[in-house]
Amino acid sequence: MKRQSWLATALAISVAGGLTAVATSAEAAAGCQVDYAVTNQWQGGFGADVTITNLGDPLTAWQLSWTYAAGQTVTQLWNGTVTQSGAQVTVANAAFNGTIATGGKANFGFNGSWTGSNPAPSSFSLNGVACTGGTTPSSPPPSTTPPTTPPTSPPTSPPTTPPTTPPVNAPSTFTNPVVWQDFADGDIIRVGDVYYYSASTMHYSPGAPVLRSYDLVNWEYAGHSVPRLDFDNAAYDLNGSRAYVKGIWASAFNYRQSDSTYYWLGCTEFNRTYVYSSKSAGSGWSKKARINKCYYDAGMLFDGATPYVAYGNSTISVAQLSSDLTSEVRSQTVYTTPSSIGTLEGSRMYKRGNYYYIWLTRPANGQYVLRSTSPFGPYEQRQVLLNLPGPISGGGVPHQGGLVQTQNGDWYYMAFTDAYPGGRMPTMAPISWSGDGWPVLQTVNGRWGNSYPRPNLPWHPLASMTGTDNFTASTLGPQWEWNHNPDTTKFSVGNGLRLNTATVTNDLYNARNTLTRRIQGPSSTATVQLDYSAMANGDRSGLAMLRDQSAWIGIRKDNGTTRVSMTNGLTMSTNGWTTTGTGSEAAGASVSGGKIWLRVTANIQPGSGRTATFSYSTNGSTFTNLGPAFTLNSDWQFFMGYRFGVFNYATSALGGSVTVNQFAVS
Predict the structure, then answer these.
(1) What segment(s) does the record annotate as region Disordered (predicted)?
(2) pLDDT for position 60
(3) In the predicted model, what is the mean pLDDT of residues 579-605?
(4) Cα dihedral 46, 51, 56, 61 sign
């Protein structure tokens, strides 16, 4: 049944702190502001987002209280815990958001019920101290019909901070690609009402990023399953050797209900498999095991508490692992791909009813599925798609990826579409099931749809995956990944990103501590504010378009003088990914003053001949183009798409540094 749209106009109230009382401990507040927004409302129910701003002493734990005037009841809350006695409501912090510095914020969201009316609370208190000086709230939004299945259970792990601005009206459709960034080989799961997506990262660290969504359309960065590429090979440290196009290929990601634990499993270098685990999808991951066998392109299924892994290239096998996922109990070949199909790989494993399914890709233009009543076969086979036109103009056939079932019982297939030079983009379509139990892809006019009806889920906008980072937090956000493992003694964040030179080289591909960020398609611009006043002679620092054919704009310091340079001609071989060109300056100009803004605008629409252009500014407002347009390589062999990269390396001796005060992607 089609769900009625949720109302997304918002009721908001802000209450500003104006007290002069002195806090007697770190648990009390001398002032506070609360933003309370009703973001969705239907007959008998509503959703709300709340943001607390602490205007008093730092808090190490908090409780926010209010009274409902019309008998509303909180039914489900995330990012905290709630108690309600009659009209009195008290929300306490969750473990991960208990500390609020002076001027800091904490957020939580909830669903509630109402009867005759739904006015906003007139006042709030934080740790027993009133937040005063509020404005009069506007009338609540009119009610609409509720969604067919409102959320009924809280997420298993805490979601990220809800958006602080009310969401816009939920659209009736979504558009592919769902995420126009390079997230390939995806594995997708649902835990409670929250969706997670894991992807390949090869030689970038941290690895195996986790994205999070509440509606399958809006996605955000949540964390990484592999905090550091700890894969028993110094090449991942980019210190004397390199690991380009090694590391994290198609890997497995899942959640086991019986022990409330997330697991990641991946084979590296075709000869060993690592297992990582965490109680939270976005943080706390640690290595659990090394298994001296390659589960190539693995998919993981928990049948109850029993772990199974489907894997292989053409010869598809299933392994049962020990309960703690540290060893193999049994493995067996279950399917040999016929020559008429060619190659099948990219396994995902599911159970639906009495059947086990292995979801397989024919790279890079087909998708197949196997089915059996036993995890170890025998399996039947069906073709799901072959040479199906995709939704991205100039891109490839959607394939690989995985299936997910919503809490409402609907199924979706999240594949990826080859779209170089940008990479491989997550692309989603609905799945139905035939009367005899086979998955059927829903197409639009004989192709993968550019758009489909939006999933029957509460609309949940999230913060943009672009934006500006001033590096004021104590750690880097999950949108950032280093080229190989960083030297952690050579960088810091909190007062800008400080990059000390970590490598003496004339080759950017050998330089440690190049920090990268995915490019937003179909085109986007990155701008960095760079303080180069502490560079040493021979140092090179700047902003790169990073791939196996690269170019950059940045500062060269030689003989005490600095110049801004556009450098191109950085190249690797496709045989071993060795450096074949370290680049040369295509254009340059003398600069001084110690501060510069560097900019690159990149068109990553699929196809050959796409370009990036470089420019700079000495005042942050007037930009000057520098050098020729750089033609991007659209070959697939490097697998990862182009990234923005910030670097600082020495050609003479270590000791210099730069500070990136801002990195903006628009």
Answers:
(1) 130-172
(2) 84
(3) 98
(4) positive
Which pTM was predicted?
0.77
Contacts of 279 (CB under 8 A, 6+ apart): 157, 260, 261, 262
Task: Return all residues near 134 (Cβ < 8 A) that are at least 6 apart.
Answer: 13, 14, 15, 16, 122, 123
Percent residues over pLDDT 70 in the chain: 89
How far is Cα 280 from Cα 97, in angstroms, rounded to an integer? 14
- DSSP codes, 67-115: E-SS--EEEEEESEEEEEETTEEEEEE-GGG--B-TT-EEEEEEEEE-S
Q: What share of the chain is helix, strand, coil (3-state, %, to 5)?
A: 0, 50, 50
Which pair of tokens denotes residue 295?
A: 């589960």
Rounded (5°) CA angle 412-418-419: 115
- The span from the CA of 462 to the CA of 478, in Å, is 15
User: In the predicted model, what is the mean pLDDT of residues 580-606?
Assistant: 98
Q: Which 3 state secondary structure label does DSSP give 287?
A: strand
Would you say residue 519 has pLDDT above 50? yes
CB neighbourhood size of 563 (10 A): 15
- pLDDT at 272 exceeding the cut of 80: yes
CA 184 to CA 401: how far, in whole Å? 8
The total of other beta-carbon atoms located within 10 Å of residue 140's CB is 19
Task: Report the alpha-carbon distance of residue 355 to residue 9 in Å, rounded.
Answer: 44
- Dihedral sign for Cα atoms in the order 153, 154, 159, 165: positive
Sign of CA dihedral 393, 445, 185, 211: positive
Helix, strand or coil for residue 360? strand
Rounded distance between C-alpha atoms, residue 612 and residue 550, angstroms: 10
Statement: residue 313 has pLDDT above 60: yes
pLDDT confidence tier of residue 357, bands split at 50, 70 and 90: very high
Q: Give the span between the Cα atoms of 1 and 252, in whole angstroms.
A: 33
| C-beta of residue 603 within 8 angstroms of C-beta of residue 609 | no
Please tell me the distance from the alpha carbon of residue 307 to that of residue 323, in angstroms, as a whole number.
Answer: 7
Mean pLDDT confidence for 180-199 = 98
Does 50 or 343 have the greater pLDDT score? 343
Q: Which element (helix H / strand E) includes 630?
A: strand 630-631
**Residue 200, exposed/middle/buried by CB under 10 A (0-12, 13-18, 19+)?**
buried
Residue 171 identity (one-letter amino acid): P
- The mean of the pLDDT values for the chain is 89
CA–CA dist 258, 304 (Å, integer) = 7
Main-chain dihedrals φ then ψ at residue 489, nearest 5 degrees: -80, -5
As a whole number, mean pLDDT of residues 311-319 equals: 98
